[in-house]
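Checked the freezer inventory, then went back to the computational side. Two predictions to log before the end of the day. The first one is the construct we discussed on Monday; recording sequence and tokens without edits.
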Amino acid sequence: HSPTFIPVMPAVFSNENTVAGIGNSIMRNQGPSRNGASWLEYAQIASGGRMRVVSNSGVNGDMTSSILGRLEQDALLKPAKWIIVSEGTNDAIQNVSVSTHRANVAAIAARVAAIGKRLIYVAAPPKQSRNTAKNNAAAKAACDSKGALFINPWSPVTENGLYIDSTYSIDGTHPTQKAQRIVGQSIWDSV
């Protein structure tokens, strides 16, 4: 009688490539062109199955201060190794000081690292606000100081700090599906 071998199938996704997203309406695709997937979902598609989004907790109007308040429940407690944060737009619109924005991003990065997870902070998209570029620079500095990854996936859809044209954003803030796909691919390419 020969032994029966049962092949052990490897898990399609391990905890190493799971992602929980937290951020504003742009992360969740809740802008005017909200029919379709978000850039986070497009990044998952671009990964060819190497990344799995376990949650996308984008909230309209969210700011870094409110992300800090809901970080544990909406991201840290999720079964994900990576936390992707997308904010900066609403901080800029609400005139949150650059130093406060940087401190909030640093606090988010520290809390993510404290429990052994990794942070990817996605730059705010183009916006007709002088604070957006300053907030992105502050967020990058905060991420660099905390060992977190800061990526700016917006360059393929922008020119001179604004969306190239209305095929990329209807309202100048929220990306269209065309832009969502391109940004998702850019995010995957960056990680």
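The second is the one RB wanted added to the comparison set:
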Amino acid sequence: PNIQCLLEDFVSYASYSLPFGMISLAENNTHLILKLSDVLPKLHHQFYYETAASNIQKVLEDFLGTDVNHGSIHFPYKPDNPMDYHKHFNHPVCFSSPTFEYHIAKEVTLKPSISYNVDLYQYTKILCEKRINDHENNRKITEEIRTLLYSSHSKNWKISDVSKKMNISERSLCRKLQHEGTSYKSIYDDV
């Protein structure tokens, strides 16, 4: 497939494995826009966004077998040394954007991958779908608690509050979380 297919698949699958933010794909007349938003405050620092931009650029270049330089990268902060960013990335770089955005020119997104293998692609899609189904079946309580904690981040949620809100005993809640391979403390600390 082309980069557009790659990004669409990435966004659909990544939304299940990014507990720290939201990833989405948008477009305007000239670009596809990969957005990273609602990032947890403790992760909202330069290294996180620099790593995301570097990894996206590397994947795109590996996918096409050439430099990708028809786009722009938008960071949600202004660094001390903005010229370092311009040296590192092959795109114009913008700062103080409301969200992290990686803009990729539409003509680039339609180019086929140099390493596309239809069998490997189909197999990978099957594995990703299986992982999503497993995730949905096995992590429902964990995600429900995370959603609850995110929705009222300022409230100091105790396990007793959560169990009452979910209409389940504390003991049952702990057992279900243990079955999912986690604990209330672990979830609470993540949020």
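For RB: The mean pLDDT is 85. The chain is about 50% helix and 15% strand. Let me know if you want it refolded.
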